[in-house]
Design brief:
This protein has 9 helices and 8 strands. Strand 5, helix 5 and strand 6 (167-171) form a beta-alpha-beta unit. Helix 4 (117-134) packs across helix 5 (150-161). With 279 residues, it is an alpha/beta fold. It has helices at residues 52-56, 64-70, 100-111, 117-134, 150-161, 177-182, 202-207, 227-243, 263-277; strands at 2-12, 15-24, 33-39, 74-78, 138-148, 167-171, 214-219, 250-255. It has a single domain, classed as Rossmann fold, CATH 3.40.50. The longest helix has 18 residues, at 117-134. Strands 1-2-4-3-5-6-7-8 form an 8-stranded mixed beta sheet, with helices on both faces. This is Acyl-CoA thioester hydrolase. Keywords: Hydrolase.
Length: 279
């Protein structure tokens, strides 16, 4: 049982974001509800953003915001730029920048200005955490994030970027960039951070989270994330967390399957978030 409310908040002058806020029914516990930022996937479905994790899309596999609310979390499900309410109308006259073309436009206009789409996503997600933290129903010391695919990618980046994230989980969100280049696999534009490989690949990003609790799920037959790279990330992260004295703060659930969020992966992710956010 839960309540659902549509919020709107500013992220930049003249730019607002719509987000579904899901609250468990009943009185909040002392200190407020633990909270989750639920980040939607991509899937080339630009008409679907915040609504899917909030439980209003066509596929219940990805209703993870609703699921986590039913487990006692306050959940905020925002639109990322280029999705749902944050995209040009499909019938806009003389507007060729729709769908993937619009995503490419938002990426390229930032690259030539010395930034990138990932920077914008991180800014907007930090604003979402501001909103969560300002809600009287939320315990600001117990905030985490979760997402699938693009949402899993962004859950990793947000946990790395914003220390307000107490614990995070990612579903089918990343692999080694080196394996994507090796196998000529294209991805969403926010994945590409100019100059990143001068500092390290995704394994370095995950390892740098230690000792903050983080887990990921991945399918061993995911065609867009070669499993050898995924296993390498898991091994390096396990070493980093052990070296930080917190091996139990990291988990990798690699299941037999493709790019998806099956029940066993869901339960592993939800259980991890409950354990470490509510601790």
């Amino acid at each position: 049982a839960r309540t659902r409310q549509l919020l709107s908040y500013a992220v930049e002058p003249g730019e607002r974001v719509g987000a579904w806020l899901l609250l468990p029914k009943g009185s909040a516990p002392a200190g407020g509800w633990p909270a989750i930022l639920a980040i939607h996937q991509h899937g080339g479905e630009y008409h679907l953003g915040k609504s899917e994790p909030a439980g209003m899309g066509p596929n219940p596999m990805y209703f993870y915001g609703r699921d986590l609310c039913q487990r006692g979390f306050a959940v905020l499900c925002p639109d990322q730029l280029c999705f749902e309410e944050r995209r040009p109308p499909e019938d806009a006259p003389n507007d060729r920048a729709i769908g993937m073309a619009y995503e490419r436009f938002e990426f390229t206009r930032r690259v030539v200005a010395g930034s990138c789409l990932q920077t914008k996503y991180l800014h907007d997600m930090s604003c979402a955490l501001d909103v969560l933290g300002a809600l009287p129903e939320v315990n600001t010391a117990q905030i985490g994030c979760f997402g699938h695919s693009l949402g899993g990618q962004e859950s990793l980046w947000l946990a790395w970027y914003d220390s307000r994230i107490r614990a995070a989980a990612s579903s089918c969100g990343f692999g080694m960039i080196s394996t994507l280049i090796r196998d000529r696999i294209n991805h969403n534009f926010a994945l590409y951070v100019p100059g990143m490989l001068e500092y390290g690949d995704v394994d370095a990003l995950v390892a740098d989270l230690a000792p903050r609790p983080f887990m990921f799920t991945a399918g061993d037959a995911d065609p867009i994330f070669p499993v050898d790279g995924v296993r390498h990330i898991a091994a390096r992260a396990a070493e980093a967390y052990a070296a930080a004295g917190a091996p139990e703060h990291f988990a990798a659930h690699i299941f037999s399957g493709v790019h998806s969020l099956p029940d066993d992966a869901k339960q592993a992710a939800y259980g991890f978030l409950e354990r470490w956010i509510k601790a």
